[in-house]
Amino acid sequence: MTPSLPRWWPLCSLAMPLTAAAQAAQPAPTAAQDPVLPPIVVTATRTDRAPFDVPASIDRIDAPDAYAGGPRINISDSLGGVPGLQARDRQNYAQDVQLSVRGFGARASFGIRGVRLYVDEIPATLPDGQGQITHVELGTVGRIEVLRGPFSALYGNSAGGVVQVFTQEPSDRPRVSVTGGGGSDGTGRLAVEATGTENGLGYVVGASRFVTDGYREHSAADRRLGNAKLTLEPDDASRVVLVVNSVALPEAQDPLGLTRAQFEADPRSVATPALEYDTRKTVEQTQGGLVYERRLADGHALRLMAYTGHRGTEQYQSIPTGAQQSPLSAGGVIVLARDYAGVDARWTWRTRAMGQPLDLVAGLAHDRLDEHRQGYNNFVGDTLGVKGDLRRDEDTTASNTDPYVQASWRPAPGWTLDAGVRHSRVKVRSSDHYVVGANPDDSGEVSFDATLPVLGVRYALDERTAVYATAGRGFETPTLNELAYRPNGQTGLNLGLQPATSDSLEAGVKARLDGAGELAAAVFVTRTEDEIVTLTNAGGRSTFQNAGRTRRTGVELGWSATWQRHLSTALAATWIDATYRDGFTTCTGTPCTAPNTWVPGGNRIPGIARSALALQAAWLPPTGWRGGVEARWLGSVPVNDLNSDAAASFAVASAHAGYVAQFGAWEVGGFVRADNLFDRTYAGSVIVNEGNGRYFEPAPGRTWFASMTASVRF
Questions:
Q1: How do 116-119 and 161-167 pair as beta strands?
Q2: 8 A C-beta contact, residue 332 and residue 379
Q3: Which of 134, 261, 489, 533 could be cross-linked to 547 through a Cys-Cys bond (beta carbons 3.0 to 4.6 Å apart)?
Q4: Which alpha helices (H) appear in 404-531, and where do they start and end?
Q5: Distances (CA, A) of 508 to 163, 465, 601
Q6: Nearest in space to 534 (alpha carbons), one of 392, 426, 639, 427
Q7: Cα(43)–Cα(34) distance, rounded to whole angstroms?
Q8: Closest CA to 519 of 564, 557, 576, 563
Q9: Cα 594 from chain centre
Q10: Is pLDDT of 13 > 50?
Q11: How far is CA 406 from the centre of its chain?
Q12: Residue 587 in contact with residue 534, Cβ under 8 Å?
């Protein structure tokens, strides 16, 4: 009997010719010296500044080192070491990763909300506050920046935090790389990258394909990504950047969550409705953006950005056929066609006020989303999991227009004042095209306004230590998905839902420790009015309401150091107390068309671990043996507003080891990685307030992944 090969084997085998060629190349006489690195800066405050000089909690992750021993499959893999950020890989590629920053975004059952996302400065969060980041090709990423706290409000709606992903800059010499890898559960990834500069035109082009059979039953996926970045400097004062990327998800099965009993009996199992209705999702998305920057006279600079894109989604849900018999049902298949576009014009002036340095930034951002939403039955006759009759058909437009201005002034040695304000206006308009029988015309519109000020002060005690304090106001509108259904089974958008508004305070210290790296610590408190929470669960749909007040109080600690040039260590610790201050009523059980249970003030906000700890150590020289270890601990996570159940706390460890060799113009390397070394059983994520009690999304047991890369410079 011929043994069967893993599903990923064809992907890895494509890399073998390049690997063989590399081994045949002549060895280099000596290893190249380590390059001199440019100063580390961040751009999250819209001006280039060292993280140490910013009066806010901000982290920069340099992706090449962060992914040196990882498969580059999920962005969450590189974000676990950021204080205040909880990133969860759901092991469900029909949904996005779960990201929450200081408790914002924790309730998202799909996609990412409450956190602003940008890829090469192009918004990945739409005007309604809903975002996704599946279109990032991690092989071409250069760095990731994470901004937390009050300064996030300067990015507008749903900016509880800001995550920005930047493609690497083109290399001077052309280089081509091929990576192939595979591991547990039929997982495989093949990637190709090319970068270089020719006649002043810089380019970074990458493509990858990822496949998996999935840790759980009915969780297979096939994802294909492409990214291209072109840079051109027409003269000494200007720069043009063109970015184009795409993602295709032709297959992504959805195993749904598990109940407590199912999770404890068999974490690899699948919910029965997932098999009955063949729950799954397909996605295709392509977008492009153009950025033009020009330095003008006397410290002035202009930046213009424009982008456009299209995303199509078809998702099969497990809505029972009985629930779809109502003439007001929207069916069990969601088909979305989204066209989006936007512009951002920004002026920067570096000058002096009262003889001291002053940076001024003023801009105007406008974004628009045109969504065509259709709903179909998920059955035809007795056959389930197929597209049936049309049950919903509407066009919805969401747009925002946001002027903003901010300034940074250094009035005296050691002192820095940062201030800014953004006015955000979000409009939603829906046109209903499905007016059939008892289903009425549900067209309507609503708009939301907010003025978002931020003020921060920083004082440098000396060259190695600085303290700061910042205050700001933010707001979070309901997303189109949260507006999509009215309570009590009525049709149309829930236009009575209002934004949540938040006031945040933060104080912190940053220190450069003599010979022992850098330390950053912050304390914060955020008070929110009109928090958006679940109202009802019926017919497989959730509706939402505005509850009262909530409060998020926390402490963050981050430390990192480099020893002997190649040994890096890092620690990230977070403690957060996120609670409802006012009580409200909610539904329990399904169906539930009217709130029937009281949630008392003092309950924890679900989806948020109270404490988190991450430790990392890695030895990463340019060539030779490399390796690293990681450990992570996460506290228990309540799964619903009632706090009637919780995902237990857990601790897991990972390790990787590899080798990189150089042969003339060729470089060949590989690694082997093991995750969940001690084979712990735990819930990697939860589905907050899931109406059927299927809250738990199990994480894999012990898994392994091996990868090899061959690259050549010309």
A1: parallel
A2: yes
A3: 533
A4: 480-483
A5: 20, 11, 29
A6: 639
A7: 26
A8: 557
A9: 33
A10: no
A11: 26
A12: yes
- Per-residue pLDDT reduced to its tens digit, 62-103: 887 777 888 999 988 888 889 999 988 778 898 878 889 999
- DSSP strands (E only) in 104-186: 112-113, 116-119, 122-123, 130-131, 141-148, 161-167, 175-183
**pLDDT interval class at 490 (50, 70, 90):** confident
The identity of residue 645, as a single letter, is: D
pLDDT value for 425:
95
pLDDT tens, 527-559?
Answer: 999 999 988 877 667 889 998 899 999 999 999
Tokens of 83: 């204080």
272: helix, coil or strand? Answer: helix
Residue 628 and residue 68 in contact, taking contact as beta carbons nearer than 8 Å: yes
What are the DSSP calls for 195-242, one per residue? EEEETTEEEEEEEEEEEE--SSTT--EEEEEEEEEEEE-SSTTEEEEE
Query: pLDDT of 157-173, one tens digit each?
Result: 988 899 999 999 999 99
Q: Taken in order 380, 386, 390, 392, is the CA torsion positive or negative?
A: positive
∠ Cα 119 116 54 (to 5°): 90
Digit-coded pLDDT (tens) for 214-273: 999 999 999 999 999 999 999 999 999 999 999 999 989 999 999 999 999 999 999 999
Query: Does residue 11 register a pLDDT over 80?
Result: no
Secondary structure (3-state) at 608: coil
The predicted model gives 696-702 an average pLDDT of 95
Under a CB-based contact definition with an 8 Å cutoff, are residues 318 and 273 in contact? Answer: yes
All residues at 6 or more sequence positions from 163 whose CB lies less than 8 Å from its CB, including other chains: 79, 85, 99, 101, 115, 116, 117, 118, 133, 144, 145, 146, 147
Q: Name the DSSP class of 388.
A: -
Is the separation of the CB atoms in 326 and 488 below 8 Å? no
Please count the other Cβ atoms lying within 10 Å of the Cβ belonging to residue 418.
24
- Give the pLDDT mean for 669-689: 95
Question: What's the rounded Cα separation, in Å, for the pair 680 and 682?
Answer: 6
**Burial class of residue 324 (count of CB atoms within 10 Å of its CB; 0-12, 13-18, 19+):** buried
Q: Would you say 536 and 587 are in contact if contact means Cβ atoms under 8 Å apart?
A: yes
> Is the model's pLDDT at 209 over the cut of 90?
yes
Tell me if residue 63 falls in helix, strand or coil: helix
Rounded to an integer, what distance in angstroms lies between the CA atom of residue 527 and that of residue 76? 27
What is the rounded CA–CA span in Å between residue 289 and residue 135? 14
DSSP annotation of 38 reads P
Give yes or no for a contact between 439 and 328, defined as CB atoms under 8 angstroms apart.
yes
- Global pTM reads 0.91
Specify the DSSP element, H or E, that contains 444. Answer: strand 444-460
Instruction: Give me 567's structure tokens.
Output: 């040994």
Q: Is 323 exposed, middle or buried (0-12, 13-18, 19+ CB in 10 A)?
A: middle
pLDDT of residue 482 exceeding 70: yes
Which tens digit of pLDDT belongs to each residue from 319-349?
Answer: 999 989 888 888 999 999 999 999 999 999 9
* CA atoms of 627 and 112, how far apart (whole Å): 32
CB atoms within 10 A of CB 103: 28
Do 191 and 181 touch, CB atoms closer than 8 A?
A: no
Residue listed under structure tokens 């990945």: 124
What length is written for the chain? 714
> What's the CA gap between 559 and 534, in Å, rounded?
37
Residue type, 358: L
Work out the end-to-end distance of the chain between its first and last CA atoms, rounded to an integer number of angstroms: 46
pLDDT bin (cut points 50, 70, 90) of residue 198 is: very high
The one-letter amino acid at 208: S
**Region of residue 105 (phi > 0: left; psi between -120 and 50: alpha; otherwise: beta):** left
Whether the predicted pLDDT of 37 surpasses 80:
no
